[in-house]
Write a structure and sequence with these properties.
The protein has eight helices and eleven strands. It has helices spanning 10-22, 33-42, 59-68, 84-92, 105-118, 152-163, 171-178, 189-201, and strands at residues 2-6, 26-30, 47-51, 75-79, 97-100, 127-129, 132-135, 140-143, 146-148, 210-213, 217-220. Strand 10 (210-213) and strand 11 (217-220) form a beta hairpin. Helix 2 packs parallel to helix 3 (59-68) and helix 6 crosses helix 8 (189-201). It is elongated, with a radius of gyration of 21 Å.
């Protein structure tokens, strides 16, 4: 495989290059965000090993820029961060896999082989149902060409509906995935926020896509539902 390693720490970059070369791979190294974007768009690679903490701009921005430019080379992110939020953010910007430091070199090479088998197929980081679409990485949402201003909680709620279009989501499930365990299942906070969301994504556009399913919960209608 022809691999691009993006790592600013010289010792780690050398170890990765040497280990991957010993496995029979061809390896190029970039030491910063701008160089990584330039190299990945100028030459074909089978996979990219991408550290998050980089000079210039970080790995999240590298990933976002590559996907925006139509570069769909599989990306494996490496980081010492253990936050679930960081992992989710990495995947939302278009990464394919995530590996925490320190890691087993055997696991790294196994994951790279799996990514290379998958190939560089386009995968839109945006979520869309009809003319309603959302960019999780940029934290922006639109109805058609009109951008919709949402609070952080409204955004998370809309993202949940867009990830499960046509599916009835119970209030309990929404609470578990959008709020935390501090809220009780009997709280009306879900109903309140669904109302807020309707006033932003439906009412100004004369739409009724966010439905109440009596006795069950809420559902984002699919376009073919009429």
């Amino acid at each position: 495989m022809h691999l691009l390693v993006v790592e600013d720490e010289a010792r780690m970059a050398t170890l990765l290059r040497r280990g991957l070369q010993e496995e029979g791979h061809t390896v190029d190294v970039a030491h910063g965000g701008p160089d990584a974007v330039w190299m990945a768009t100028e030459a074909p690679f089978d996979a990219i090993v991408l550290d998050i903490m980089l000079p210039g701009f970080d790995g999240f921005e590298v990933c976002r820029q590559l996907r925006q430019r139509g570069c769909w080379t599989p990306i494996l992110m490496l980081t010492a961060r253990e936050s679930v939020g960081d992992r989710v953010h990495g995947l939302d910007t278009g990464a394919d896999d995530y590996l925490l430091k320190p890691f087993s070199f055997d696991e790294l090479t196994a994951r790279l082989r799996a990514l290379a088998r998958r190939g560089a197929s386009p995968r839109s980081p945006r979520l869309q149902v009809g003319d309603l679409h959302l960019d999780p990485a940029a934290r922006r949402a639109w109805r058609g060409e009109v951008e919709i201003a949402l609070s952080a909680r409204e955004f998370s709620l809309l993202e949940l509906f867009l990830r499960h279009p046509g599916e009835v989501l119970t209030r309990t499930r929404i609470l578990e995935q959008v709020w935390d365990f501090a809220y009780e299942a009997g709280s009306n906070v879900v109903d309140q926020y669904v109302g807020y969301l309707r006033r932003k994504i439906d009412q100004p556009f004369n739409r009724r896509d966010l439905e109440t399913v009596r006795g069950a919960g809420y559902r984002l209608r699919l376009p073919e539902d009429g």
